[in-house]
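re: that chain from earlier
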Amino acid sequence: MDTNAQILRDDWSSWWAVIPPALWTLQGVEHPLRTTPRQKAHPVSLWELQRVYGAEPAYQAVLHCARCFHKELPERDMPAVPATGTQREDLHHWLWTTAGTSATFRVLGACGFRLHADDPQIKPYVSLDWIWLHPYSRHRALFRTAWEIFIRRYPYILLEQPTTAVRISLYGRPAMTLATRDGQELRLYTQSPECAQHGPMRQGASGAWDCYAKLPDGHICTATWVAPKPIRDVPAVRETHGQRTATR
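^ sequence. v structure.
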């Protein structure tokens, strides 16, 4: 059976410069996203895909989004999307969808995570290798609301070459810096502030987070985390048009 035939085009989407895939079925875990009153007419769900029988159309849609990502950012490597039937425990893929017109689901975007667990000196973490949203689906807080699900699913997330839009979406989110065995420093986002050496911190009365872990010499760890200044106080970051528009 030709699985490509199951990826349809909505009747009205032929007017788009970038045509989003549409699917009849999805195999995975659905996470409805929080919506504003304006978005209630077209709610969006985030799907964590599973590599099971019948999931081929969904992964074809992921591949379509990956190609769009690579087309907008040709200096980046083509995202890895395993062929149908290939078991890759280290690669996780997600889809944003809304209700379709001629099919059940219309795909709004996709992203891919990669698991890293080969350094015994640091905790396993995932890297967000790529993310692509359809141009008409950007600047609608889809990534920002999905992040709340991502950070619960993956306690430690590294962003691979994030665009300015992604960095702005995550501005002020807790993060910590870890050193790998080869001396590389990783900035990992966390759900709550954590000390790189002792784990979760405690929030103080001043709003700052402190470690307070007892050290072998009897002293207390002085590591702290303070929320950064409002983003309006941060100088703008300049980048190319392609970097600015590829992911929102």
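The chain has two domains: 3-191, 204-240.
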